[in-house]
């Protein structure tokens, strides 16, 4: 008969296997941007919606259509800020800071989060 496994041990294993991105905010404060797999189902859906809406908000794709470039940039900022707040383990600690970040910094943080938390290939999947 198999030995019982504790949820606590599995939680620790899941945290190790699907880590978040620790982000130093300054003043000794670190916030972790959680892996999408470690979010609630509702939060996962919201993250996916935000990422999809960010793709459709790319001003480079619409430049020829005569859209308002500045409005598109502001929309991108709001989307990325919302996404970072959604995945942060301490919203209160990061909220005021992300409001001050420019779009370039927001996108770099999001890209770093995506690269660190990307899903591993499933076992047995072709490479």
Fold topology:
Blueprint: H1 7-17, E1 21-26, E2 29-33, H2 41-56, H3 59-62, H4 69-87, H5 91-100, H6 103-117
Antiparallel strand pairs: 1-2
Description of the structure:
This protein has helices spanning 7-17, 41-56, 59-62, 69-87, 91-100, 103-117; strands spanning 21-26, 29-33. The chain starts with 6 loop residues before the first helix and ends in a 10-residue tail after the last helix. Helix content is 59%, strand content 9%. It has a domain at 40-117.
List keywords for this structure.
Tail assembly chaperone; 127 residues; 6 helices; mainly alpha; Gp24/Gp25
Q: Give the number of DSSP strands.
A: 2
Helix-strand topology string: HEEHHHHH
Strand order of the largest sheet: 1-2
Q: Mind describing the biggest β-sheet?
A: 2 strands, antiparallel
Query: What is the rounded Rg?
Result: 18 Å
Instruction: Report, as a whole number of angstroms, the end-to-end distance.
Output: 35 Å
Residue windows where pLDDT falls under 50 for at least 5 positions? none
Strand content: 5-15%
Structural class from helices and strands? mainly alpha
The outline comes out as: elongated
Summarize the amount of helix as a percent range: 55-70%
Instruction: Report the average pLDDT across residues.
Output: 87
Tally the helices: what do you get?
6
Pfam family, one: GP24_25
InterPro entries: Gp24/Gp25 (IPR020132)
Organism: Streptomyces fructofermentans
Protein name: Tail assembly chaperone
């Amino acid at each position: 008969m198999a030995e019982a496994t504790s949820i606590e041990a599995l939680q620790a294993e899941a945290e190790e296997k699907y880590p978040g991105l620790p982000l130093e905010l300054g003043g000794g404060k670190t916030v972790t941007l959680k892996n999408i797999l470690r979010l609630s189902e509702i939060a996962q859906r919201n993250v996916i919606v935000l990422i999809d809406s960010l793709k459709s908000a790319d001003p480079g794709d619409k430049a020829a259509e005569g859209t308002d470039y500045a409005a598109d940039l502001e929309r991108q900022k709001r989307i990325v800020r919302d996404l970072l707040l959604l995945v942060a383990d301490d919203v209160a600690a990061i909220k005021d800071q992300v409001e001050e970040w420019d779009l370039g910094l927001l996108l770099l943080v999001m890209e770093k989060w995506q690269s660190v938390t990307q899903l591993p290939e499933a076992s047995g999947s072709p490479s």
